[in-house]
Amino acid sequence: MRPRVVCGIAAAVALFATACGGGDGGGQGASVTASAQAGAYPVTVADCAGKETVIAKAPTKIVTSNASSLEMLLRLGAGDRVIGTGFPPGKGTLPADIAEQGGKVPVLGEKVIPREALLGSGADLYVDTFSAMPMMGGGATGPSEEEYAAAGIRHVYLLSTACAGTPKAAKAPRTDLAGVEDDIRRLGAVTGTAARAEELVAGMEKQVGDVRTALAAVPEAQRPSYFVFDFDAGTKQPVAVCGRQVANAVITQAGARNVFADCDADFKPGSWEDVVAKNPDWIQLAVRNRGSEEATRKAFDDAEAFLKGFPATQGLKAVQEGHFVRLGSEVTTIAGVRNADAVRQIAATVHPDLVKNGR
Questions:
Q1: Could you tell me which of 275, 294, 273 has the C-alpha nearest to residue 228?
Q2: Euclidean distance between CA atoms 306 and 235, whole angstroms
Q3: Distance (Å, rounded) from C-alpha 248 to C-alpha 231?
């Protein structure tokens, strides 16, 4: 097995996560060094600024800041060690094979975990996907590193979600899922589940690789333009999914061109005038899972109805041609194994003659 090379970890936007590391244009110069031997300790991880944290032994009581890191740990087989989470996954958002276990994880905070609850949780590891993102409420109110240390909590970050929102983030758009894969490997190293991490990454690479091969002959200029419509963020002012966001990598690998790939951020408030000017070939109706198939379908219907009835968007090419991709926000904008599933689903929709849905 190759040596585990890992970069620092952190932040995002509630349900959203961005990539920053590995080969997807997001390297921060913050690396993780770990023994080349699977399951060996100590493991040293660095945050986006390069500050290192040493994990001397396998953690036994883990707290996660949100559903993104929680799902990764569940898939790695370390879910039985998770004693609490913030931003818990909504009903129906976790895949069926891990939903029951995920639903049993105690909720320490419906949003950002309160400082006192986190420090008093008894955790020996806190996996942080938010870092000091002011909009997540964790920057000024979260524990200091000295407080984490005093409580015996090792504080590590998800690089793919933390670094993109920081001033030092790499400026290049994220065009592949290497940063997400590095996060999975990093958590595998930290939790002693490196072999399982490699299995998960191999599955992602196989699925995305198959799509890449199928689309190899499609020139860049002929790849359709694509807009992610975050219906749940509100309809008065659309949110642009920018080049640093993991969704940009998902869209790119699926053989499409994110119309807002050139904005230098992970997310930015936009305007309908901007969307009209881009006139995308396809629009993703990105709604969050409502907890049931019927309720989620209605949310997709509502998002589509808005675009068809709103004067500014009803004339868009995608709206006129009915070119909608019904795909949830979670699998597109949250870093995780299911990003590879999203790549295939988008590709199968916008390139139906070349890519078929399913494995």
A1: 275
A2: 8
A3: 18
Q: How confident is the model at residue 24 (pLDDT cuts 50, 70, 90)?
A: very low
- Region of poorest pLDDT, from 52-56, 161-165, 271-275, 325-329: 161-165
Structure tokens, 348:
């199968």
Please list, in sequence order, all residues whose beta carbon lies within 8 angstroms of the beta carbon of residue 352, skipping any fewer than 6 positions away: none
3-state secondary structure of 295: helix
Token pair for 303:
């998002």
Inter-residue contact 308 to 283 (CB < 8 Å): no
Q: For the chain, what percent of residues have pLDDT higher than 70?
A: 83
pLDDT for position 264:
82
The CA distance from 336 to 15, in Å, is 12
- Say if residue 151 is exposed, middle or buried (CB neighbours under 10 Å; 0-12, 13-18, 19+): middle
What is the reported pLDDT for 132? Answer: 53
| Helices (H), ranges, the chain | 67-76, 96-103, 115-119, 145-150, 159-162, 178-191, 194-214, 246-253, 272-278, 293-309, 317-321, 329-333, 339-350
Q: How far is residue 54's CA from residue 44's CA, in Å, rounded to a whole number? A: 4
Tell whether pTM > 0.90.
no
The DSSP 8-state label assigned to residue 37 in this structure reads S
Q: What is the spatial distance between Cα 323 and Cα 304, in angstroms, rounded to a whole number?
A: 10
Strand order across the beta sheet in which 62-64 lies: 107-109, 82-86, 62-64, 125-128, 154-157
Closest CA to 101 of 126, 130, 65, 76: 76
DSSP-assigned letter for residue 169: S
